[in-house]
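Tutorial sheet, problem 5. The two components below are modelled jointly, 582 residues in total.
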Amino acid sequence: MNQISPELAKKLTLAVEKMPAFPKSVQKILELTRNLDCEPKQLVQVIEKDPVMTVKILRVLNSAYYNLPSKITSVNHSVVFLGFNTIKNLALSIASVGILPKYNAAGFDIQHYLLHSLTTAGIAKSLAGKLGGADPMDCYIAGLLHDFGKVVFAQFMPDEFNQAMQKSRSENISLHVAESQVIGVDHTVVGSMLAEKWQFPQTLIDCIRNHHSADSGEGGMWASVYAANQISKKLSFGDSGNPCIETLPPAVCNYFGGDIDEIIASLRDLPKIVEEAQLFSQVGADA
Amino acid sequence: MKIRFWGVRGSIPSPGPNTVKYGGNTTCIEIRTDDNELIILDAGTGIFALSQALLKEMPVAANVFITHTHWDHIQGLPFFIPIFIPGNTLRLHGAFDPVSGRGIEQIMEVQLQYSYFPVREAEMKAKIEYETLMPGQSVQIGSATITPTLLNHPVINFGYRIDCNGKSVFFTGDHEPYYNIYAPGDEGYEEYRMLIEDKEKSIIEAMRGVDVLIADSSYTTGEYPSKKGWGHGTFDSSIAMAKKAGARIVYCTHHEPTRNDEALEREFEKVLALHPREGCGPECRLAREGEEIEI
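Model answer (structure tokens):
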């Protein structure tokens, strides 16, 4: 099991093409682009906070049409390559698709999902900054996209995903395990399959694929995203739909020289990461 | 290789007594290889006069390379007379547009809509072919190799390098030198600076050692700050690029539509005074409609 059928792969890939972005970024993009003097960096900051916007733009950039010498995960990079106005109009066309509904048939809260993704991204970036060797912005993007498969499930296989979430809660098993049992494939497989189809860099594909795998993962990017995901859940930043917090594998702890509590204690910029993520996901006390 | 300018004006045609010397037509450059193959860079209004000249040598096989799809670079296409005559071939090359999700085939279609032009593409008698190109991937036209490079403009813009029997020319189309979207001290500043540096290096490599560089030089350095982000270069930026790339001659083109002949020469004199020719450095010229050079 845990292999995706070609039919399902095709169906999900096509479905994501029409997938709308998150409410706050759509609103911000429309607001910023009404002004002809829209500041490029403000637009980049909005795109980078939305997993749907980010994948759609990186997908264009990494497509065969542009034959880039290396695969790209940075939105800044996309502005340099395709030009600001093209990125702006791409963002606008994504915004015009509509917004992801807050309430979906799966009962998966997309704003809490976004808060979980944004905090995972921010923490992964911060952890990578401590390591050296792993590019902090690549880790940010990997954190932002690590659970992309879940939002795809919620949108396009809501009944099955709902069952998996219920099973995960009632049996207290990790959501990816429940997904495998109910759907036959988990979100790491779907997320990495999409990333591969979009010709994203191999490190990003592997990182999405292995963010629950204690054995198969390797490298600073993997360790940063693995740890950040568990930290975000442990501190209840948003909700990934998964009630289980996994113990960090020794390989991850070795990277950071401590267990999850020690890593958390070392994260000085945590309040800032959380505050920014809450503001954008529209979840939390001050949002 | 022969190069002839049929349109050197930017943005909008600017005919009249004040632009007689440099010309009012928008971008179109004819290139003839040593074997007389016909390559046309951009299809601004200048292509109309070129197309009339071509009627003497039918059947015509025209290889048009579009730098980008803004009006001033495509507007003459429906008036390229050989497309109405059987036996001729028009082969259009250009970039994929990520916003419309379409290749170069859309440039005819958008212009030939019922409300805007009386003839449909199906009614044009010549053979019309389209080839959407990828940056860095060369195409061969007879004895010439044409290589597109992605440059910086508010729409996807290819600069084209044409190599033929050891001679070479690079045309930028419209290009603005990259600038950092972050302020010094911003978190993204350093990353962006490095990205720009890499991209600039790759562009200079793409135009390395050309005999002729034809570059978008719309503005003076003084005018530029109020035009930042519009996607155009300056006289100074074009000359700097030519120096870095080791070009032999640089033609400044895409003349500002409000700049009359006298003003154009006056501004260019000032620029030349600031950039006296050093040793084997590039010779700087103003592109002029009707001018032909052989290299």
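Marking note: The longest helix of chain A spans residues 110-131. Full credit if you identified this.
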